[in-house]
Amino acid sequence: MTTLLSLEGIKKTYWPASNQTITALGKIDLEVQDREFITIVGPSGCGKTTILKLISGVLKPTKGRILVEGIPLQNSHRQLLGMVFQQPALLPWRTVLDNVLLPCEVKGQDMHKARALAEELLGLVGLNNFINRNPRELSYGMQQRVSICRALISDPRILLMDEPFAALDAITRFEISRLLLEIWSVKKNTVLFVTHNIQEAVFLADRVVVMTPRPGRIASIVDVPLPRPRTEKHLYDPSFSSCAETIHQLLGLNAL
User: Could you tell me the pTM of the whole model?
Assistant: First the structure.
Protein backbone atom coordinates (compact mmCIF):
# COMPACT_ATOMS: atom_id res chain seq x y z
CA MET A 1 0.00 0.00 0.00
CA THR A 2 1.03 3.61 -0.63
CA THR A 3 1.33 6.12 2.19
CA LEU A 4 -1.07 8.98 1.47
CA LEU A 5 -0.89 10.97 4.71
CA SER A 6 1.94 11.31 7.24
CA LEU A 7 1.95 13.10 10.60
CA GLU A 8 5.52 13.55 11.79
CA GLY A 9 6.27 14.74 15.33
CA ILE A 10 3.03 16.73 15.51
CA LYS A 11 2.52 18.83 18.64
CA LYS A 12 -0.20 21.39 19.27
CA THR A 13 -0.27 23.96 22.06
CA TYR A 14 -2.93 26.59 22.69
CA TRP A 15 -2.42 29.89 24.51
CA PRO A 16 -5.88 30.84 25.86
CA ALA A 17 -4.27 33.54 28.05
CA SER A 18 -0.90 35.24 28.16
CA ASN A 19 0.16 33.31 31.25
CA GLN A 20 -1.49 30.00 30.37
CA THR A 21 -0.79 27.21 27.90
CA ILE A 22 -2.73 24.08 27.05
CA THR A 23 -0.93 21.28 25.24
CA ALA A 24 -3.60 19.45 23.25
CA LEU A 25 -1.29 17.04 21.46
CA GLY A 26 1.99 15.74 22.85
CA LYS A 27 3.78 14.07 19.96
CA ILE A 28 1.90 12.34 17.16
CA ASP A 29 3.53 10.15 14.52
CA LEU A 30 1.10 8.43 12.17
CA GLU A 31 1.12 7.09 8.63
CA VAL A 32 -2.17 6.55 6.82
CA GLN A 33 -2.26 4.42 3.71
CA ASP A 34 -4.15 5.26 0.55
CA ARG A 35 -7.77 3.94 0.75
CA GLU A 36 -7.37 2.97 4.40
CA PHE A 37 -10.16 3.39 6.95
CA ILE A 38 -8.74 4.69 10.24
CA THR A 39 -10.79 5.31 13.39
CA ILE A 40 -9.51 7.39 16.31
CA VAL A 41 -10.72 6.83 19.87
CA GLY A 42 -9.72 8.35 23.19
CA PRO A 43 -10.99 10.25 26.22
CA SER A 44 -12.61 13.67 25.86
CA GLY A 45 -10.06 16.44 25.38
CA CYS A 46 -7.29 14.15 24.11
CA GLY A 47 -6.98 15.99 20.80
CA LYS A 48 -8.92 13.72 18.42
CA THR A 49 -10.74 16.62 16.76
CA THR A 50 -7.55 18.69 16.82
CA ILE A 51 -5.89 16.06 14.63
CA LEU A 52 -8.64 16.44 12.02
CA LYS A 53 -8.39 20.23 12.16
CA LEU A 54 -4.64 20.05 11.62
CA ILE A 55 -5.06 17.74 8.62
CA SER A 56 -7.72 20.03 7.16
CA GLY A 57 -5.44 23.05 7.52
CA VAL A 58 -7.82 24.87 9.86
CA LEU A 59 -5.10 24.75 12.54
CA LYS A 60 -1.33 24.82 12.22
CA PRO A 61 0.84 22.47 14.30
CA THR A 62 3.07 24.01 16.95
CA LYS A 63 5.77 21.51 15.99
CA GLY A 64 6.12 18.82 13.37
CA ARG A 65 4.76 18.55 9.87
CA ILE A 66 1.97 16.92 7.88
CA LEU A 67 2.72 15.41 4.49
CA VAL A 68 0.30 14.46 1.71
CA GLU A 69 1.97 12.01 -0.68
CA GLY A 70 5.32 13.19 0.66
CA ILE A 71 4.58 16.90 0.11
CA PRO A 72 4.14 19.27 3.09
CA LEU A 73 0.50 20.19 3.63
CA GLN A 74 -0.50 23.35 1.74
CA ASN A 75 -3.68 25.19 0.77
CA SER A 76 -3.98 23.32 -2.53
CA HIS A 77 -4.39 20.05 -0.62
CA ARG A 78 -7.78 21.24 0.65
CA GLN A 79 -9.16 20.21 -2.73
CA LEU A 80 -8.43 16.62 -1.69
CA LEU A 81 -10.43 16.81 1.54
CA GLY A 82 -14.04 16.24 2.54
CA MET A 83 -15.39 16.86 6.04
CA VAL A 84 -18.40 15.52 7.96
CA PHE A 85 -19.15 17.15 11.31
CA GLN A 86 -21.11 15.98 14.35
CA GLN A 87 -24.03 18.21 13.29
CA PRO A 88 -25.37 17.97 9.71
CA ALA A 89 -25.25 21.79 9.23
CA LEU A 90 -27.56 21.76 6.22
CA LEU A 91 -28.94 25.00 4.77
CA PRO A 92 -32.65 24.95 5.65
CA TRP A 93 -33.76 26.92 2.56
CA ARG A 94 -32.13 24.50 0.12
CA THR A 95 -33.50 21.12 -0.90
CA VAL A 96 -31.65 17.89 -0.15
CA LEU A 97 -30.23 17.83 -3.66
CA ASP A 98 -29.19 21.48 -3.57
CA ASN A 99 -27.46 20.98 -0.21
CA VAL A 100 -25.42 18.15 -1.67
CA LEU A 101 -24.56 20.24 -4.74
CA LEU A 102 -23.40 23.28 -2.76
CA PRO A 103 -19.63 22.46 -2.89
CA CYS A 104 -19.87 22.03 -6.66
CA GLU A 105 -21.53 25.42 -7.05
CA VAL A 106 -18.84 27.08 -4.93
CA LYS A 107 -16.08 25.49 -7.03
CA GLY A 108 -17.80 26.32 -10.34
CA GLN A 109 -17.96 22.70 -11.49
CA ASP A 110 -20.07 21.26 -14.29
CA MET A 111 -23.48 21.15 -12.61
CA HIS A 112 -24.97 18.63 -15.05
CA LYS A 113 -22.33 16.04 -14.13
CA ALA A 114 -22.51 17.05 -10.48
CA ARG A 115 -26.26 16.53 -10.37
CA ALA A 116 -25.92 13.01 -11.76
CA LEU A 117 -23.29 12.19 -9.12
CA ALA A 118 -25.40 13.74 -6.34
CA GLU A 119 -28.39 11.62 -7.33
CA GLU A 120 -26.15 8.53 -7.39
CA LEU A 121 -24.85 9.25 -3.89
CA LEU A 122 -28.33 9.94 -2.51
CA GLY A 123 -29.44 6.66 -4.01
CA LEU A 124 -26.60 4.84 -2.25
CA VAL A 125 -27.83 6.14 1.12
CA GLY A 126 -31.49 5.44 0.36
CA LEU A 127 -32.61 9.06 -0.13
CA ASN A 128 -33.35 9.04 -3.85
CA ASN A 129 -37.03 9.72 -3.08
CA PHE A 130 -36.22 12.75 -0.91
CA ILE A 131 -34.07 14.87 -3.22
CA ASN A 132 -36.62 17.69 -3.41
CA ARG A 133 -37.43 17.75 0.30
CA ASN A 134 -36.15 20.39 2.71
CA PRO A 135 -33.95 19.36 5.67
CA ARG A 136 -36.74 20.04 8.20
CA GLU A 137 -38.75 17.24 6.58
CA LEU A 138 -36.04 14.68 7.32
CA SER A 139 -35.10 12.82 10.47
CA TYR A 140 -31.75 13.61 12.07
CA GLY A 141 -30.27 10.40 10.71
CA MET A 142 -31.46 11.24 7.20
CA GLN A 143 -29.95 14.72 7.50
CA GLN A 144 -26.61 13.19 8.43
CA ARG A 145 -26.78 10.98 5.36
CA VAL A 146 -27.22 14.14 3.28
CA SER A 147 -24.15 15.68 4.93
CA ILE A 148 -22.13 12.57 4.05
CA CYS A 149 -23.22 12.88 0.42
CA ARG A 150 -22.28 16.56 0.43
CA ALA A 151 -18.79 15.68 1.68
CA LEU A 152 -18.40 13.01 -1.01
CA ILE A 153 -19.74 15.00 -3.98
CA SER A 154 -16.26 16.37 -4.79
CA ASP A 155 -14.82 12.83 -4.64
CA PRO A 156 -12.26 13.66 -1.91
CA ARG A 157 -9.13 11.56 -1.57
CA ILE A 158 -9.32 12.02 2.21
CA LEU A 159 -12.59 12.06 4.16
CA LEU A 160 -12.45 13.49 7.70
CA MET A 161 -15.35 12.56 9.98
CA ASP A 162 -15.71 14.08 13.45
CA GLU A 163 -18.12 11.97 15.53
CA PRO A 164 -20.79 12.18 12.82
CA PHE A 165 -23.09 9.60 14.42
CA ALA A 166 -22.76 10.66 18.07
CA ALA A 167 -26.30 12.06 18.37
CA LEU A 168 -28.01 9.07 16.77
CA ASP A 169 -29.79 6.22 18.52
CA ALA A 170 -28.01 2.85 18.50
CA ILE A 171 -30.11 1.30 15.71
CA THR A 172 -29.80 4.29 13.36
CA ARG A 173 -26.12 4.61 14.22
CA PHE A 174 -25.40 1.06 13.13
CA GLU A 175 -27.51 1.43 10.00
CA ILE A 176 -25.61 4.52 8.86
CA SER A 177 -22.27 2.93 9.78
CA ARG A 178 -23.14 0.04 7.50
CA LEU A 179 -24.18 2.45 4.73
CA LEU A 180 -20.92 4.35 5.13
CA LEU A 181 -18.96 1.12 4.61
CA GLU A 182 -21.01 0.36 1.50
CA ILE A 183 -20.17 3.78 0.06
CA TRP A 184 -16.52 3.42 1.05
CA SER A 185 -16.33 0.04 -0.68
CA VAL A 186 -17.36 1.81 -3.92
CA LYS A 187 -15.54 5.14 -3.57
CA LYS A 188 -12.46 3.90 -1.67
CA ASN A 189 -11.68 7.25 -0.06
CA THR A 190 -9.10 7.35 2.70
CA VAL A 191 -11.12 7.91 5.89
CA LEU A 192 -10.16 9.26 9.32
CA PHE A 193 -13.12 8.83 11.63
CA VAL A 194 -13.25 10.17 15.21
CA THR A 195 -15.57 8.42 17.65
CA HIS A 196 -16.08 7.73 21.36
CA ASN A 197 -17.79 4.44 20.56
CA ILE A 198 -15.36 1.52 20.72
CA GLN A 199 -17.66 -0.96 18.98
CA GLU A 200 -18.24 1.51 16.15
CA ALA A 201 -14.49 2.10 15.85
CA VAL A 202 -13.77 -1.61 15.50
CA PHE A 203 -16.66 -2.30 13.11
CA LEU A 204 -15.58 0.42 10.67
CA ALA A 205 -11.80 0.38 10.75
CA ASP A 206 -8.81 -1.29 9.22
CA ARG A 207 -6.87 0.13 12.18
CA VAL A 208 -7.95 1.85 15.39
CA VAL A 209 -5.74 4.64 16.76
CA VAL A 210 -6.06 4.73 20.56
CA MET A 211 -5.19 8.07 22.21
CA THR A 212 -3.97 8.86 25.72
CA PRO A 213 -5.50 11.61 27.90
CA ARG A 214 -4.31 15.16 27.21
CA PRO A 215 -1.72 15.92 26.08
CA GLY A 216 -2.84 13.42 23.48
CA ARG A 217 -0.41 10.83 22.23
CA ILE A 218 -0.94 7.56 20.44
CA ALA A 219 -1.10 4.83 23.08
CA SER A 220 -1.36 2.07 20.48
CA ILE A 221 -2.67 1.23 17.04
CA VAL A 222 -4.91 -1.84 16.95
CA ASP A 223 -5.20 -3.79 13.70
CA VAL A 224 -8.71 -5.08 12.98
CA PRO A 225 -8.49 -8.49 11.24
CA LEU A 226 -12.19 -8.74 10.38
CA PRO A 227 -12.84 -9.47 6.69
CA ARG A 228 -14.80 -7.14 4.43
CA PRO A 229 -17.57 -6.54 3.57
CA ARG A 230 -18.74 -6.34 7.18
CA THR A 231 -22.23 -7.17 8.41
CA GLU A 232 -24.03 -7.66 11.70
CA LYS A 233 -22.54 -11.14 12.07
CA HIS A 234 -19.06 -9.64 12.53
CA LEU A 235 -20.22 -8.05 15.78
CA TYR A 236 -20.19 -11.58 17.26
CA ASP A 237 -16.86 -12.62 15.77
CA PRO A 238 -14.22 -13.46 18.44
CA SER A 239 -11.80 -11.11 16.67
CA PHE A 240 -14.26 -8.25 17.13
CA SER A 241 -14.54 -8.91 20.88
CA SER A 242 -10.78 -9.28 21.18
CA CYS A 243 -10.10 -5.92 19.50
CA ALA A 244 -12.76 -4.15 21.56
CA GLU A 245 -11.40 -5.60 24.80
CA THR A 246 -7.85 -4.56 23.88
CA ILE A 247 -9.02 -0.98 23.27
CA HIS A 248 -10.96 -0.97 26.57
CA GLN A 249 -7.79 -1.98 28.39
CA LEU A 250 -5.66 0.62 26.59
CA LEU A 251 -8.15 3.29 27.65
CA GLY A 252 -8.11 2.08 31.23
CA LEU A 253 -11.73 0.94 31.12
CA ASN A 254 -13.22 -2.24 32.49
CA ALA A 255 -12.91 -5.15 30.11
CA LEU A 256 -15.98 -6.29 28.25
Answer: 0.93
